[in-house]
Amino acid sequence: MMRRYLWRCQIVTMNNPFEAHEAMLKTFKQYKVFSEGEEEVNGLFCEKKAVKWKAQTTVGDEVLEEKEIIIQQAWISKKYNIPIKLINY
Fold this sequence. Notes:
This protein is of the alpha+beta class. The chain has one domain (2-88). 28% of the residues lie in helices and 55% in strands. It has helices at residues 2-15, 17-27; strands at residues 31-41, 44-59, 62-77, 83-88. A hairpin with a 2-residue loop joins strand 2 (44-59) and strand 3.
Protein backbone atom coordinates (compact mmCIF):
# COMPACT_ATOMS: atom_id res chain seq x y z
CA MET A 1 0.00 0.00 0.00
CA MET A 2 2.76 2.45 0.91
CA ARG A 3 4.73 1.69 -2.26
CA ARG A 4 1.82 2.67 -4.45
CA TYR A 5 1.49 5.99 -2.64
CA LEU A 6 5.21 6.77 -2.95
CA TRP A 7 5.20 5.85 -6.63
CA ARG A 8 2.25 8.15 -7.33
CA CYS A 9 3.91 10.95 -5.38
CA GLN A 10 7.05 10.60 -7.52
CA ILE A 11 5.04 10.65 -10.76
CA VAL A 12 3.13 13.77 -9.72
CA THR A 13 6.29 15.65 -8.79
CA MET A 14 8.08 14.58 -11.99
CA ASN A 15 5.25 15.85 -14.19
CA ASN A 16 4.35 18.99 -12.25
CA PRO A 17 7.16 21.39 -11.30
CA PHE A 18 4.84 23.37 -9.01
CA GLU A 19 4.05 20.25 -6.94
CA ALA A 20 7.77 19.43 -6.92
CA HIS A 21 8.49 22.91 -5.53
CA GLU A 22 6.08 22.40 -2.62
CA ALA A 23 7.27 18.85 -1.95
CA MET A 24 10.91 19.92 -1.97
CA LEU A 25 10.34 22.68 0.58
CA LYS A 26 8.30 20.47 2.92
CA THR A 27 10.45 17.33 2.70
CA PHE A 28 14.07 18.40 2.71
CA LYS A 29 15.44 20.42 5.62
CA GLN A 30 18.79 21.20 3.96
CA TYR A 31 17.09 23.61 1.54
CA LYS A 32 16.60 27.18 2.74
CA VAL A 33 14.38 29.86 1.19
CA PHE A 34 15.66 33.42 0.82
CA SER A 35 13.67 36.46 -0.30
CA GLU A 36 15.21 38.35 -3.24
CA GLY A 37 12.78 41.24 -3.55
CA GLU A 38 9.65 41.81 -5.60
CA GLU A 39 8.99 41.69 -9.34
CA GLU A 40 6.02 41.86 -11.67
CA VAL A 41 5.35 38.72 -13.76
CA ASN A 42 2.60 38.83 -16.40
CA GLY A 43 0.87 41.69 -14.61
CA LEU A 44 0.95 40.01 -11.18
CA PHE A 45 3.03 41.37 -8.33
CA CYS A 46 5.23 38.57 -7.01
CA GLU A 47 7.78 37.98 -4.30
CA LYS A 48 10.96 36.53 -5.78
CA LYS A 49 12.44 33.73 -3.67
CA ALA A 50 15.53 31.58 -4.08
CA VAL A 51 15.81 28.04 -2.78
CA LYS A 52 19.42 27.43 -1.76
CA TRP A 53 21.35 24.36 -0.67
CA LYS A 54 24.35 24.58 1.63
CA ALA A 55 27.12 22.53 0.00
CA GLN A 56 30.30 21.46 1.74
CA THR A 57 33.57 20.21 0.31
CA THR A 58 35.16 17.87 2.84
CA VAL A 59 38.21 15.68 3.18
CA GLY A 60 37.61 13.17 5.93
CA ASP A 61 36.10 15.15 8.80
CA GLU A 62 37.65 18.46 7.74
CA VAL A 63 35.43 20.98 5.94
CA LEU A 64 37.46 22.70 3.23
CA GLU A 65 34.79 24.89 1.68
CA GLU A 66 31.18 25.88 2.30
CA LYS A 67 28.98 27.62 -0.22
CA GLU A 68 25.31 28.09 -0.96
CA ILE A 69 24.11 26.86 -4.33
CA ILE A 70 20.87 28.14 -5.85
CA ILE A 71 18.66 25.16 -6.65
CA GLN A 72 15.53 27.01 -7.74
CA GLN A 73 14.10 30.49 -8.13
CA ALA A 74 10.38 31.05 -7.63
CA TRP A 75 8.09 34.00 -8.15
CA ILE A 76 5.19 33.68 -5.69
CA SER A 77 2.04 35.68 -6.46
CA LYS A 78 1.03 37.99 -3.62
CA LYS A 79 -2.61 37.87 -4.73
CA TYR A 80 -2.98 34.09 -5.14
CA ASN A 81 -0.08 32.84 -2.95
CA ILE A 82 1.06 30.28 -5.54
CA PRO A 83 4.21 30.05 -7.69
CA ILE A 84 3.70 31.85 -11.01
CA LYS A 85 7.15 31.21 -12.45
CA LEU A 86 9.85 28.67 -11.55
CA ILE A 87 13.42 28.28 -12.75
CA ASN A 88 15.25 25.08 -11.78
CA TYR A 89 19.05 24.87 -11.89
